[in-house]
C-alpha cells in the first residue's frame, strides 16, 4: 500500500527571528540594497523548504513567500496595478511593488494628492492578516508581469526539492478585488484566464508536477453566477496546467461543495479544523479521480493537535478512499502561526507542553501519517506523549476559576445598558468637555521610537530598574502631551510608550494568559504581532492603565483619553483556548475591561476609548452564522462600557474592514464616538453609515498612517468635505486612520499640523 502523504498549504514567511521584516525595513531605509534584500529572501525560502522536507512533508509549497502580501503578488503577476503606481509594462520591479503597498515616497509626492495613495488594505477573511485590495477597471488589461512563481519553483528545484507552486485562484482574485465603477469583477474573467494559463503552462514546462490554486471564496456565500464561473474557468486552466490541488480554508464548502467536486482538479481540500462535519459529505461524493486533502492540523491556532480526534478523521477517510487518495494536511497556510517553539526557553513549561507552532505542526503531520502505518497507534511513544499533554491540559487547575465563571453566569441585561440614550448623554458630555466643531484627536499611540524600544528591552533584561524605567516613560508621556498641546489637538492621548502591543499589553496584566518571547506572526507587510496565549479563565487582578492616564491628565487641562482595547479584539488577536465556547471567553474579558473602565472614570478620566478594530474581522464567513456572533460581540462591548455615568464619553475605533454587513451591530454598540479608517477609500466607507443613518458621532480617518507620505491640509479638507456630505458636520471628528506607533516623528508632526489646520479651516 502506498504510504499516506503529507502537505502544508503555506509556511510563515518572516523567519524565526523576523529576518524578512528587518531586511525589508532596512531596504526601505536605504541601508541595504535590493540585491541584499533578495539574498535574504532566497536564504529564508531555502531554509523553509528544507525545514519542511526534513520534517517529512511530501507536498511542500513554493510561491507562498512574499515581500509584503500574496494578494499584491497576484496583482503584480497579472499586471493589475493602477496607473498612479507608475507601472508601465514589463515585469513589476521591487520599487513599483512597494509603491503599490506603501504609496508614493514623500520625496516624490510633491503636489500630488490622491494619485499618490497606496492600494487599500483590508482583513484576510476572519484573520488578523491584512491584504492589499487590487483595483480593477472595467476595461482592465491583464498581462503576465512577474516570473516569481517560476523563479521560486526553480530555486527549490536546484536544492533538490520538488515543490507545489501556490497561486491565488483567478475567481478569488477577482472577487477579493475592488472594481472601479459599477461593474461585476467576474466580467473580467475571460481576460484574466490567459495570464493564468501562461504562468501555469510555464510551470508545467519547467517540470512542476502539480500546483495549488487557492479559492478561499468557496468558503463564502456565493451567488449562482459566481458558482457557475468556476467550471469553464477551471476547464480552461486544466488544459495547460500541471495537476491542480484546489484549496479552500477557514470554513466549509457547504453549498459550494458540488461546484468544487465537478471541477477538473486532482484534489479537494477539506478544512476539518473549521468544519469537521463536512468530511462525511466529501467521502460520500468525492469522485473516483480525485484525492482528498484533509486539513486536520490547525494553521491558525497554537494548541497541540489532538491525535486521537485527528487520527479518527484520517482513518475514516482512508477506510473509504484508501491511503493513496488521502493527503494529511494543515487546515490552512501556517502563515498565521509563529515559526517555532524552540526559542521559547522562558515560556511556562506547563503551558508550553500544550502548544505547537509551525515547525511543531510539521512534526504533527508526519506523526499522523505514520500512525496510519501502525497496527496500534496507541502504543507509539509520540501518541502517548500527545495523550498525556491533552489530559494534563483538561485537568489543570490553572484553567478553571469558579469566581470568574460565576460572575459571567450571573450577568443581566442591565450590565449591557448605558444609563441614558445617546441624545441625552451627548448634551451632558458637551457641557462637561466643551469640544469645538470638528474636534481633533488621534487614535491612541504615538511613534514608538528607537529610544522607547531600547528602554523597554533594557527593562525586560533587568538592565534598567523599575524606577528608572517609570521615570523614562513619564518623560515620554510629558513630551507627547506637550507636542499635542503645541499642535492644538482638542482631545489628547498619552501616547502609550509603556505598551508593546495593544493586546499583549493587556494580556500581560490579566489572569489566564501566558506569553511567548518570539511568537511573531505577520499582520501586514513588515508589521508583525506577537499574540498572547489565552489558556484559562480571564480576570483583572488590579488596574492596568489608570496610573498612566491620571499622570497624563495631570499635565494638561485638555481632556485626556483613557485608552483600552476591547474584549472582541483582545479575543480575536490572541491565540484563544479551544476548550470552551469563544463567546464565554469574550464575556470574561468584557467584565475585566468593565472593571478598568469604571476605575478610569472614578479617577477623573472623562473620555475613554475602547478599541474594537477586530469586530468585523471576527464575523463568521457565512451569513447564517452572523447573528449569534454579533449578539455576543455587542453584548461584550456594552458590558465593558455600560458601568459609567452619562457624562463620560465612550469612544471606539475600527479599521480596515467593510462596515455594510455589520452597521446595525456597530450602532448597537452605542459608543458615543466611533473613529474609522477612511482615507484610502476616499471616504467611501462612510456610505454605510450614511445609508444606515448612523445616529452617533464619527471620526473618519483623514491620514493613511500605513503610508510614509504626509497628506496636505487641502487634501484633508477635501476628505472632510466629502465626509460632511454623508454625516452632519456637528457629528464629525477629525483624526488619523489608526494609531501612530509605526510612524516617525517628523511625518507625524507634519501630518497632524495639517490635520489641525484642516479642522480650523472647516470651522471657519
Automatic annotation (TrEMBL):
Keywords, ordered alphabetically: Amino-acid biosynthesis, Metal-binding, Methionine biosynthesis, Methyltransferase, Repeat, Transferase, Zinc
SUPFAM superfamilies reported in the protein's UniProt record: UROD/MetE-like
Pfam families according to UniProt: Meth_synt_1, Meth_synt_2
Gene Ontology molecular function: any one: zinc ion binding
Cofactor(s) it depends on: Zn(2+)
Cofactor: how bound: Binds 2 Zn(2+) ions per subunit.
Catalytic activity: 5-methyltetrahydropteroyltri-L-glutamate + L-homocysteine = tetrahydropteroyltri-L-glutamate + L-methionine
Domain Cobalamin-independent methionine synthase MetE C-terminal/archaeal: 438-760
Role description: Catalyzes the transfer of a methyl group from 5-methyltetrahydrofolate to homocysteine resulting in methionine formation.
Descriptive protein name: 5-methyltetrahydropteroyltriglutamate--homocysteine methyltransferase
Gene: metE
Amino acid at each position: 500500500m502506498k504510504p499516506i502523504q503529507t502537505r502544508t498549504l503555506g509556511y510563515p514567511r518572516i523567519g524565526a527571528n523576523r529576518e524578512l521584516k528587518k531586511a525589508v525595513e532596512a531596504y526601505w531605509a536605504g541601508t541595504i540594497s535590493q540585491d541584499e534584500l533578495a539574498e535574504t529572501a532566497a536564504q529564508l525560502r531555502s531554509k523553509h523548504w528544507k525545514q519542511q522536507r526534513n520534517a517529512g512533508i511530501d507536498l511542500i509549497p513554493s510561491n507562498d513567500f512574499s515581500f509584503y502580501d500574496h494578494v499584491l503578488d497576484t496583482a503584480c503577476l497579472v499586471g493589475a496595478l493602477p496607473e498612479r503606481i507608475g507601472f508601465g509594462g514589463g515585469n513589476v520591479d521591487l520599487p513599483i511593488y512597494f509603491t503599490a503597498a506603501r504609496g508614493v515616497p514623500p520625496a516624490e509626492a510633491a503636489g500630488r494628492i490622491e494619485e499618490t495613495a497606496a492600494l487599500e488594505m483590508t482583513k484576510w477573511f476572519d484573520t488578523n492578516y491584512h491584504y492589499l485590495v487590487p483595483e480593477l477597471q472595467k476595461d482592465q488589461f491583464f498581462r503576465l508581469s512577474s516570473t516569481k512563481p517560476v523563479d521560486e519553483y526553480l530555486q527549490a528545484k536546484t536544492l533538490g526539492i520538488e515543490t507545489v507552486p501556490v497561486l491565488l485562484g483567478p475567481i478569488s482574485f477577482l472577487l477579493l478585488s475592488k472594481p472601479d465603477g459599477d461593474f461585476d469583477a467576474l466580467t473580467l474573467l475571460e481576460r484574466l484566464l490567459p495570464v493564468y494559463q501562461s504562468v501555469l503552462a510555464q510551470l508545467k514546462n519547467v517540470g512542476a508536477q502539480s500546483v495549488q490554486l487557492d479559492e478561499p471564496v468557496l468558503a463564502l456565500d456565493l451567488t449562482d453566477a459566481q458558482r457557475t464561473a468556476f467550471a469553464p474557468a477551471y476547464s480552461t486552466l486544466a488544459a495547460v496546467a500541471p495537476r491542480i490541488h484546489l484549496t479552500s480554508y477557514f470554513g466549509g464548502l457547504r453549498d459550494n461543495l458540488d461546484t468544487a467536486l465537478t471541477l477538473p482538479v486532482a484534489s479537494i481540500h477539506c478544512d476539518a479544523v473549521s468544519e469537521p462535519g463536512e468530511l462525511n459529505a466529501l467521502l460520500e461524493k468525492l469522485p473516483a479521480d480525485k484525492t482528498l486533502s484533509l486539513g486536520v492540523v490547525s494553521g491558525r491556532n497554537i494548541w497541540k493537535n489532538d491525535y486521537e480526534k485527528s487520527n479518527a478523521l484520517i482513518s475514516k477517510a482512508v477506510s473509504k478512499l484508501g491511503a493513496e487518495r488521502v493527503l494529511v494536511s494543515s487546515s490552512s497556510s501556517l502563515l498565521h502561526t509563529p515559526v517555532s517553539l524552540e526559542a521559547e526557553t522562558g515560556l511556562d513549561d506547563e503551558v508550553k507542553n500544550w502548544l505547537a507552532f509551525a515547525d511543531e505542526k510539521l512534526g504533527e503531520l508526519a506523526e499522523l501519517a505514520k500512525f496510519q502505518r501502525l497496527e496500534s497507534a496507541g502504543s507509539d511513544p509520540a501518541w502517548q506523549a500527545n495523550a498525556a499533554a491533552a489530559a494534563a491540559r483538561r485537568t489543570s487547575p490553572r484553567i478553571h476559576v469558579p469566581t470568574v465563571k460565576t460572575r459571567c453566569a450571573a450577568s443581566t441585561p442591565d450590565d449591557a445598558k448605558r444609563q441614558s440614550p445617546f441624545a441625552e448623554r451627548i448634551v451632558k458630555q458637551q457641557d462637561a468637555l466643551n469640544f469645538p466643531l470638528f474636534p481633533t484627536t488621534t487614535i491612541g499611540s504615538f511613534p514608538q521610537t528607537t529610544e522607547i524600544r531600547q528602554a523597554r528591552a533594557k527593562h525586560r533584561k533587568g538592565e534598567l530598574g523599575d524606577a528608572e524605567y517609570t521615570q523614562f516613560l513619564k518623560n515620554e508621556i510629558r513630551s507627547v502631551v506637550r507636542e499635542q498641546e503645541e499642535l492644538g489637538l482638542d482631545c489628547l492621548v498619552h501616547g502609550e510608550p509603556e505598551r508593546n502591543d495593544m493586546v499583549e499589553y493587556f494580556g500581560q496584566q490579566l489572569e489566564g494568559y501566558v506569553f511567548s518571547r518570539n511568537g511573531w506572526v505577520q499582520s501586514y507587510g513588515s508589521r508583525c504581532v506577537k499574540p498572547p496565549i489565552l489558556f484559562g479563565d480571564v480576570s483583572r487582578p488590579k488596574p492596568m492603565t489608570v496610573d498612566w492616564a491620571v499622570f497624563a491628565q495631570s499635565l494638561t487641562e485638555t481632556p485626556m483619553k483613557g485608552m483600552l482595547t476591547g474584549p472582541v479584539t483582545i479575543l480575536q488577536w490572541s491565540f484563544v483556548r479551544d476548550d470552551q465556547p469563544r463567546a464565554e471567553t469574550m464575556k470574561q474579558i468584557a467584565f475585566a475591561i468593565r472593571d478598568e473602565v469604571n476605575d478610569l472614570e472614578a479617577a477623573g478620566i472623562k473620555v475613554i476609548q475602547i478599541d474594537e478594530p477586530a469586530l468585523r474581522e471576527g464575523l463568521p464567513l457565512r451569513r447564517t452564522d452572523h447573528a449569534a456572533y454579533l449578539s455576543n460581540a455587542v453584548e461584550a462591548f456594552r458590558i465593558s462600557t455600560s458601568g459609567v455615568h452619562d457624562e463620560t464619553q465612550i469612544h471606539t475605533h475600527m479599521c480596515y474592514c467593510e462596515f455594510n454587513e455589520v452597521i446595525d451591530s456597530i450602532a448597537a454598540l452605542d459608543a458615543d464616538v466611533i473613529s474609522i479608517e477612511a482615507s484610502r477609500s476616499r471616504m467611501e466607507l462612510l456610505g454605510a453609515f450614511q445609508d444606515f443613518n448612523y445616529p452617533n458621532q464619527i471620526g473618519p480617518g483623514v491620514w493613511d498612517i500605513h503610508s510614509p507620505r504626509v497628506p496636505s491640509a487641502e487634501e484633508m479638507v477635501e476628505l472632510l468635505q466629502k465626509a460632511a456630505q454623508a454625516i452632519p458636520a456637528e457629528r464629525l471628528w477629525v483624526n488619523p486612520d489608526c494609531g501612530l506607533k509605526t510612524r516617525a516623528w517628523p511625518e507625524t508632526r507634519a501630518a497632524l499640523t495639517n490635520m489641525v489646520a484642516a479642522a480650523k479651516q472647516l470651522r471657519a
